[in-house]
Amino acid sequence: MLLALTIFIATLVFVIWQPKGLGIGWSALGGAMVALLLGVVQWADVIVVWDIVWDATFTFVALIIISLILDEAGFFSWAALHIARWGGGRGPLLMPLIVLLGALIAAFFANDGAALLLTPIVIAILARLDFSPAASLALVIATGFIADTASLPLIISNLVNIVSANYFDVSFGRYAAVMVPVDLISIATTLLVLWLAFGRKMPRRYDVAALDEPTSAIVDGQIFRAAPPILGALLLAYFVLAQWRVPVSLITGAGAVTLMIIAGRWGQRKEAVILLGPVIRGAPWQIVLFSIGMYLVVYGLGQSGLTHYGATVLEWLGQQGQFVATLGTGFLSALVASVMNNMPSTLVGALAIDQAQVPDLTRELMVYANVIGNDLGPKFTPIGSLATLLWLHVLAGKGYHISWGQYMKVGLMLTPPVLLAALAALAFWLPALAGA
């Protein structure tokens, strides 16, 4: 186990460090090769791990391609400008409106899309409105925070959700039935804690006339008109095709290809408005290598004894009742994610839950609590997720320098109440749903 732990720590250091030319994917794959050469994992384990991660990985890539195309078409800028106008010049109303927009984007385009695409747009709008640095930073933090706390409702809302749903064979409809109400509680609590923390920093008024017209943000009219029906058809397909166990990646991939055909004007005698080359190159292809590499390293760590220790802890929690088991699993997953990164933490939790001897309903509560913990746990520390590290890098490029100490101070203040509220909602809602 010491050897497996050493390989994992070294791999995680390289993933976070990201030496030039290496990237997260090659760093993780390098750790996996070391684990294979030293016998921590076997070649047969590669097939097991690939079976766990392939659908989630390619779903995530397809979602980001969809998000990037819509972003290039001006879809998110158009929505953000509308939101700013709906505020009617009232500063205190702008924060909840931006938070709700972030929650909506996170639900359909994953937490990474919400944080990385919406944040630059919000910064640009705030610059036009001449907000104070303190108010601007508060809204930027709110945008990044809601991206994770609102990434619970659908399987596609977070890579963590996809991995967990596939591992435990949870259908799209069942997952939504459990987690949509929990997500609403999470969003409401997020709004409350953000307002308590930053509400006084908001200006009383802002100049709506300083904003551009929303229509000025539209770059590709064809994509803009096609997006709503395509997204609606995608959502319907997720629910309908789930009964035949159609992989989520195939459905999402079909949506991405459809948008690419429209954006590239394939089969039309018109010149494309959006350059698809940069969009495709901008997709997170490194995540494919990262998924197989990091999960293989973590799988070896689990096989070396970590899974057994985790299962023992979960069995003890299961003996304390459903409420304690839910909160305990969620907070334990969140703490592990904050130091281990939420992607490997998700697999560790899933393997431990699978091995733990607990009643069926308690097991189901633990499955969803593990998702909640790994969705929200990354907000405790900057290394909790790769998206957070990239988000901080994007902010630094825009002139917003947030140190790790500042980030953790905010994360430790805001995250626990939201995590507690979401887990408590799950503990009450799932047994009620099961008994209905």
UniProtKB/TrEMBL annotation:
It comes from the Bacteria. GO terms for cellular component: plasma membrane. It is a multi-pass membrane protein. The keyword Cell membrane applies. One of its GO terms (molecular function) is arsenite secondary active transmembrane transporter activity. The chain crosses the membrane at residues 93-125, 137-156, 176-198, 247-267, 279-301, 321-340, 410-430. The keyword Signal does not apply. It is found in: Cell membrane. It holds the Pfam family ArsB. Keywords: Cell membrane, Membrane, Transmembrane, Transmembrane helix. This is Arsenic transporter.
